[in-house]
Design a protein that fits this description.
Layout (H helix, E strand, L loop, with lengths): L14 H9 L1 H7 L6 E8 L7 E7 L5 E3 L1
Antiparallel strand pairs: 1-2, 2-3
Helix pairs in contact: 1-2
């Protein structure tokens, strides 16, 4: 049996600003990391039909990195 987990939050900002920060690669690199020991040096996000989302995740100490 599959179980679902739902996470919700309230963001006190205009929807246009939230959408920009959620979807633009320049902003994705500032929030898309697992812990403060990691960072995302690059991201791409094409919201057109058939578009792709990808990013690079790296440990800040340089010990490991991967592309998704």
């Amino acid at each position: 049996m599959k179980k679902a987990i739902t996470v919700a939050t309230l963001i006190k900002a205009p929807i246009e600003k939230v959408w920009t920060y959620w979807t633009k690669p320049i902003h994705i690199t500032h929030w898309n990391f697992a812990t403060t020991d990691w960072w995302a040096p690059r991201a791409t996000n094409d919201l057109t039909k058939g578009g792709k989302f990808s990013f690079r995740m790296e440990a800040k100490d340089g010990s490991f990195g991967f592309d998704l």
